[in-house]
Design brief:
The complex is a heterotrimer of chains A (278), B (375) and C (315). Chain A is mainly alpha-helical and 278 residues long. Chain A folds into two domains: 9-58, no CATH class; 68-272, Orthogonal Bundle (MetI-like fold), CATH 1.10.3720.10. Chain A has helices spanning 9-38, 41-46, 60-67, 70-101, 107-117, 126-135, 142-146, 153-164, 168-177, 181-192, 194-209, 213-218, 227-235, 242-262, 264-272. In chain A, helix 4 packs across helix 8, helix 4 packs antiparallel against helix 11 and helix 13 runs antiparallel to helix 14 (242-262). Chain B is α+β, with helices and mostly antiparallel strands. Chain B has two domains: 4-243, 3-Layer(aba) Sandwich (Rossmann fold); 249-366, OB fold (Dihydrolipoamide Acetyltransferase, E2P). Chain B has helices at residues 42-50, 92-102, 118-131, 147-159, 177-194, 205-211, 229-234, 239-244; strands spanning 4-13, 16-26, 31-35, 57-62, 65-66, 77-80, 165-169, 198-202, 214-219, 222-227, 251-260, 263-268, 271-275, 294-299, 304-306, 312-321, 325-332, 335-342, 353-358, 364-366. In chain B, the strands form four sheets. In chain B, strands 6-7-8-3-9-10 form a six-stranded mixed sheet, sandwiched between helices. In chain B, helix 2 (92-102) packs across helix 3 (118-131), helix 2 (92-102) runs parallel beside helix 4 and helix 3 crosses helix 4. The relative contact order of chain C is 0.12. The longest helix of chain C has 42 residues, at 26-67. Chain C is globular. The chains are: A mainly alpha (278), B alpha+beta (375), C mainly alpha (315). Chains A and C meet through helix 1, helix 4, helix 5, helix 6 and helix 12 of A and helix 1, helix 3, helix 4, helix 5 and helix 6 of C.
């Protein structure tokens, strides 16, 4: 929208006011969560639920960490997330390479197979998949938490798009230089498409860290809860202790918030892939 | 250095024949330019030499070796691409080094080709960089280089492995005009210094004329003519070559043969040009065309002039002043004809009628059906 | 070619000897090439395919199998009941209720989410000092997972101590309004994603079009409807499809905020499927899962065809 800096001041002020109001609305739930996390619950209610914290307990985050065993839960989440992201990167890179640079029979059929998986989310395949995990004795275990997510059609397509953008001349030059497929993949294809790969990695991280439905289904023991599942049990606590649940929720969101701040470009690129052309 | 020999090379993509029975020898140490319009098959021919495209039929030799089935990296050639194909994430030094990483090279004094050690590679890279004036740029990445510099990196990468032949796919087309002219000179100089065999593809006939020791003109996958620039310019073997080489292009007009008192003439428009005896090149058995036969007459703009004593009439339709010369465009019986004139003196006015004259030994005659030269 | 080289760890590169190596025959070499390539492709695709077969396609088969059978309480025995189970379940009240609730959920979350997202994106798509700060704030809810968003929102709509506990419109205690309360948490959570995507779409619209429109006398409203909206329509279409699919998959927010209640008023399809994991229920659960799958397919396909006609690609 063309609104250049030569606008009259009153208009600019109006926009700032408007934008700030909208920001306040967006931030309001988090703000309320924060002040309630910091407040002593009973005091807060007695004070009539004001818009500022009451009887602040600065140690609430440390207490939530202890009471909710958040360290362990974050650990579980961290391991599963890293395993999933690493596995997805590897499988997607290899599959994307095959679809872009290799010629083989049934290529189109196999591509369709990949596409088909996009229509089968974990919510649909839940019952049989949980049964499979149960049969493999993988309930309450890392394999059980990560198994269905080790490959990704979305990632394959995203990276394939990146690979297709590599100029054909570059491929020819590599061929003349004597690079075989693996050498080309490692030395040229991956470094040249690093931005796309990074974007996908960020999205994969986001998605894996925030998972709820699958962990909820395959975890029955408290000590195997991921941080997201842990939030449910922590927030179901009594009203007198809902500050713990809130503190835990805020801490659970921190890693992704850090992603948003430091890797914003990659995050946005990954999210908008497919939505915007060019 | 080696020769490159095409023996009846054909390339088919499904139903399309891209290269049709090409037979050509690129001599050791020569600068041969494959010249032709876009899509004529010259790049395909080049890629077959490189090993980037498979050969459908025919035999390809580099040196004395048949290389049809040999992989690109083992053919001991290198290629400079139109877009330079530099690895954007690697420094100049690493780009130049890359052919030496996975390829085996022949070392003087050793029987079998082998890969070089890191120290040996560094020496070769430094050497190639020095030859192309890139020593100060070795740590930079391609994005930080100008177009001309990138091209030199591509060249350095090509020479570093001391290949038997250099293949070039329109390497100058991404440069601006001034840089192009300068680089043409440098390329010829480089080839001479390296005493290398260059096989160069372009659609620009100026590049071909100024750089080549021989030009091979190709269209629709078929070789039209091969020869030194001057030979091709002065004696084109067919209409295509005649029209493709030369800027501005040769004038071609349809005419009829007339034999009069033992002299041969070609009648065009309302007049006629006298021509020398007509025979097909190298074919003494073919009888000279008879009186009344149709021919196509070709004459270069610098070989035709406006003179009051001229034998053919034309009307001036446009005059282009280029500074160093004038192009007078006339209409000769419906066909446009360009005449080059020095820029002194005043050109005749547009719309005026003039008479054209041309010396018989500067006239080219072509058969209208076969388009072959007949004189 | 022997070009003088520098001294040092120098080797002279050139044609030392010329072993004349001609190739044996043509056909074998070419065949070897493509077989090698196919094997490599197989190796590269295998890991993904193993996962896909095990966790996507085999389950699809299993769902059909389960849907045709009925198990006992312990899963130790099963009997074939046939396609009638499909018709029974899909036409049964349980499934239809779940479908209706899921459908309501879609209607509650998608339109509102889109409008708000567009509003935020349009507001933040201008050149003002510090606009990036606002953009980061508007995008911030993308950092929340469904679980986090639900817990945070619970603060507001908790029937006992929520800030808005007296807002009957959103009360989680009332079957009529509980779904709305949950939906609001989703709308809020999706704001960030919607904002990011719409903003990207807006930024792809060339400035010159707005300038030309302004010269033609278009006011801001007209510019929005005649230029902005049509040109971001591919983006919007993508977003609609994504949000609808998300809404059909709603589970975590229900699990945390209402546990399916009150009185089953928030039992979406996925919630029902999740709670059909016991052997006794697996048959019906499987049918519902297949129903969900089919509905998602149909809805997505319908959306593509309807919206595709109205989408404006290019100029």
């Amino acid at each position: 929208m063309a609104a250049d800096l030569n606008q009259p001041t009153w208009k600019k002020v109006a926009w700032y006011v408007g934008l700030t109001s909208l920001s306040l609305v967006v931030v309001f739930p988090v703000y309320m969560a924060l002040i309630r996390a910091l407040s002593t619950p009973v005091s807060y209610i007695q004070a009539g639920q004001p818009l500022r914290p009451v009887d602040i307990q600065w140690g609430i985050f440390a207490r939530a960490w202890r009471v909710g065993d958040l360290g362990a839960k974050m650990g579980i989440s961290a391991v599963t997330t890293f395993v999933i992201v690493a596995a997805q990167l590897i499988t997607a890179l290899l599959a994307a390479y095959a679809f872009t640079f290799l010629r083989f029979p049934f290529r189109r059929v196999l591509f369709a197979v990949f596409i088909a998986t996009l229509m089968l989310p974990i919510e649909v395949t839940l019952i049989p998949n949980v049964q499979t995990i149960r049969d493999l004795h993988w309930l309450n275990s890392y394999p059980g938490l990560v198994a269905p997510f080790l490959a990704t059609a979305f990632g394959t397509f995203l990276i394939r798009q990146g690979f297709s953008g590599i100029p054909r001349d570059l491929r020819d030059a590599s061929q003349l230089d004597g690079f075989g497929h693996l050498a080309f993949l490692w030395r040229v294809a991956i470094p040249v498409t690093r931005p796309v790969i990074a974007s996908f990695a960020v999205i994969a991280f986001l998605s894996a860290w925030n998972q709820y439905t699958w962990p909820r289904a395959v975890v029955t023991e408290g000590r195997w809860e991921t941080i997201q599942i842990g939030l449910k049990s922590l927030s179901a606590a009594k009203v007198e202790e809902n500050n713990i649940g809130l503190a835990a929720a805020i801490m659970a969101a921190l890693p992704i918030l850090l992603l948003l701040i430091f890797l914003q470009r990659q995050l946005i690129r990954g999210l908008t892939a497919g939505a915007v052309k060019g | 250095m080696s020769k490159v020999v095409f023996e009846d090379i054909t390339k088919r993509f499904d139903d399309v024949v891209a290269v049709d029975r090409l037979s050509l020898e690129v001599h050791d140490g020569e600068f041969l330019v494959l010249l032709g319009p876009s899509g004529c098959g010259k790049t395909t021919a080049l890629r077959m030499v490189a090993g980037l495209d498979t050969i459908t039929d025919g035999t390809l030799r580099i040196g004395d070796r048949i290389v049809n089935e040999i992989e690109a990296k083992d053919r001991d050639i290198s290629m400079v691409f139109q877009s330079y194909a530099l690895y954007p994430h690697m420094t100049v030094a690493k780009n130049i080094e890359s052919p030496l990483l996975a390829r085996k090279v022949s070392v003087v004094g050793e029987a079998e080709p082998r890969k070089l050690t890191k120290a040996e590679r560094d020496v070769q890279v430094a050497d190639a960089a020095r030859t192309l004036g890139l020593t100060d740029l070795l740590a930079r990445k391609p994005a930080a280089l100008s177009g001309g510099q990138r091209q030199r990196v591509a060249l350095a990468r090509a020479i570093v492995s001391r290949p038997k032949a250099f293949l070039m796919d329109e390497p100058l087309s991404n440069l601006d005009a001034k840089l192009r002219a300068q680089t043409r000179v440098e390329l010829v100089d480089l080839q001479r210094r390296l005493e290398a065999t260059f096989l160069y593809v372009t659609h620009d006939q100026v590049e071909a004329m100024t750089m080549a020791t021989r030009i091979a003109i190709i269209t629709e996958g078929r070789l039209q003519q091969v020869g030194a620039p001057q030979a091709v310019y002065e004696r084109p073997h067919n209409l295509f070559v005649a029209r493709f080489i030369g800027s501005p292009p040769m004038n071609t007009v349809a005419g009829t043969v007339a034999i009069d008192a033992g002299e041969a003439y070609v009648v065009v428009g309302d007049g006629r040009f006298r021509v020398d005896a007509m025979t097909a090149p190298g074919d003494a058995t073919r009888a000279a065309p008879v009186d009344g036969a149709k021919v196509i007459l070709g004459v270069r703009p610098e070989h035709i002039s406006l003179e009051s004593g001229g034998t053919v009439t034309a009307t001036i339709t446009a005059v282009e002043w280029l500074g160093h010369e004038i192009h007078v465009i006339c209409d000769l019986a419906g066909t446009p004809v360009i005449v080059r004139q020095p820029s002194e003196g005043s050109p005749p006015a547009i719309g005026s009628t003039v008479r054209l004259t041309a010396a018989p030994d500067e006239l080219h005659l072509f058969d209208p059906d076969t388009t072959e030269r007949i004189n | 070619m022997t070009t003088p080289l520098s001294e040092g760890a120098g080797v002279v590169l050139g044609d030392a000897t010329e072993p004349s190596r001609s190739s044996p025959g043509r056909a074998p070499r070419r065949l070897k090439h493509s077989v090698k390539e196919s094997l490599l492709a197989a190796a590269f695709l295998l890991p993904s395919l193993v996962i896909f077969v095990t966790f996507f396609f085999y389950p699809l088969y299993r769902l059909v199998y389960l849907g045709l059978h009925q198990q006992n309480r312990f899963g130790t025995a099963e009997r074939y009941v046939g396609p009638s189970q499909f018709t029974d379940v899909l036409s049964g009240s349980d499934f239809r209720e779940g479908l209706s609730i899921s459908g309501r959920y879609v209607l509650l979350t998608v339109p509102l989410g889109l409008v708000l997202g567009v509003l935020l994106a349009v507001a933040a798509n201008r050149r003002l000092r510090g606009i990036k700060v606002f953009q980061t704030i508007f995008a911030s809810t993308v950092a929340t997972s469904v679980a986090v968003a639900s817990v945070v929102f619970f603060v507001l709509i908790n029937p006992q101590v929520g800030y808005f506990k007296n807002v009957g419109f959103l009360s989680l205690n009332n079957p009529a309004s509980a779904l709305r309360g949950v939906a609001l948490s989703s709308v809020w959570q999706n704001l960030g994603l919607t904002f990011i995507i719409v903003l990207a779409g807006l930024q792809a619209v060339p400035e010159e079009l707005y300038e030309a429109a302004t010269l033609d006398g278009y006011g801001p409203i007209r510019r929005f409807f005649k230029i902005t909206l049509p040109l971001i329509s591919p983006t919007m279409m993508f977003l609609v499809v994504v949000l609808v699919v998300f809404a059909f998959q709603a589970f975590a927010q229900i699990d945390i905020l209402t546990g399916g209640g009150p009185a089953g008023s928030t039992q979406t399809l996925v919630w029902k499927i999740f709670n059909s994991q016991q052997p006794l229920d697996q048959g019906t659960g499987a049918v519902m899962a297949i129903g969900l799958f089919a509905i998602t397919l149909v809805v997505t396909a319908v959306q593509f065809s309807i919206l595709d006609r109205r989408v404006h690609y290019g100029r």
